[in-house]
Structures are given as C-alpha cells and as structure tokens.
Amino acid sequence: xxxxxxxxxxxxxxxxxxxxxxxxxxxxxxxxxxxxxxxxxxxxxxxxxxxxxxxxxxxxxxxxxxxxxxxxxxxxxxxxxxxxxxxxxxxxxxxxxxxxxxxxxxxxxxxxxxxxxxxxxxxxxxxxxxxxxxxxxxxxxxxxxxxxxxxxxxxxxxxxxxxxxxxxxxxxxxxxxxxxxxxxxxxxxxxxxxxxxxxxxxxxxxxxxxxxxxxxxxxxxxxxxxxxxxxxxxxxxxxxxxxxxxxxxxxxxxxxxxxxxxxxxxxxxxxxxxxxxx
Length: 278
Description:
single chain; alpha+beta; Helix Hairpins; Heat Shock Protein 90; 3 domains; 7 helices
C-alpha cells in the first residue's frame, strides 16, 4: 500500500527538458516509489500563457510608465535649464546638478525595471562555482548592514544559473530588507544547500513586516507600497526564480519582520545525475 506522504521537485536539464521528480513512501514497508516525469510540454504551455499575461501587463505598464516618468522628466528638464543660467552661483549649480542626477537615476530605474521584467525567462545560463556566486553577492554589500551566513556547503559545487539575473534578484530582496529595518538593525542572508542539493537563499529582516494582503500581492506587477517604486522589483524576482525552475516564499508578521525564501534546483551535480539516469 502507498501512503499519502508524497512530495515532488522539478529539475531543468541541459538538454532543455524539464523533469518532475516525485517520491512516495510505501505504507507499512521500507522503501519508496520514485517517479520521473517529462513535463517539458506542460512547462512550455505554461510559459506561453505567462507570456500572454506579460504582454497584457506591459500594455498596462505603458500607461503607468508615462504617468510616472512625466514628473521626474519635467523636473530634470527644469534643473537642466537652470544650469544654463550664467548668473547661477557655484552652490546653486551643485544643488541643481544633484537634483538633475536624482531625477535621471529615477528615470533609469523605471526603464531598467521594465526591461528586466520583459526579458525574464530568456536568460542564458552558465555553470559557475557557488563560491564565485556568493563572493559576487558579498562584494555588492560589503559596506552595508548585511550579515552573510553559510550552511551545508561542505565541498565545491557548480550551479547552472544566469549570474547577473539571480544576483540582481537577491540584491532586490536585500535592498527591500534594508529599507524595512531601522538604522541600528541588520539584515541576515543565509545561503546553503538543502537535503536534495537545492540551492537555498534566505533574506531575513526584523523590520515592520507585511500584512496578509501585502503578502498575497507583493509579486504582482505594478503593486507597490513605495512612493518612488515601479512595482516591478519583486515581480522581476519572481520571474527570475521561475526561469531557474525554483520557488520563492514570503513569511512575514507585522511588527516582527519578514523572511524571503528562495529554493532553486540549480546545482550542476544534481542536474548531471538526473541527466545520466534518463
């Protein structure tokens, strides 16, 4: 007899196939039933559906972008015109230059978020060492209030990822966590491998926390609680995780803090082992 204690995982192979691995414990007996299923076609249909949803969302974003860009663009034009005034003092020039740069950086973030969201799922992956990926993330936050902790990494491991996309996703989570904490607090980033060799990344903050409604909507495109946000940051993170056949969870309590959990089947040794067995 087979029990109901069943769990499953998905793996992306270098051949392009997507394989679902499910393991079921035999009731009253020792042993498991292991099932490998090729779900490539289902994944392709899912991606096509997601692409159509994304196109609809991009149409919505065009109107939103025009509205959000108008104010900083008008400000940038105003500051730029003031810099052409001959009688402007050095202090005023410095002030207007700083304001101009601030407006242009905001405009750049708007366009960058839009491009990242539209390109998700089209990333080119490569095999790199997990150590190299970790060092890349650490270098970005060397002077910030982030404590990195590493567990269950006892030997060198290769990960099959798009380094820039995945590090950008982790950076987005870390930046959100830093925004949520006070000046004297710190953010924790835990990186490790789980029991079945998945890469796990946790970003933990002791900030204000999120309501249940916010947790349900944070991955929706254009949803944001920030006055200067595009609402695409976490939507991009979610798409990057999906492109790596992984999953992301948000665990949060008001007044306690938030934990963002990433679980990614990207360790190359696991992928090669599955590939040889098919």
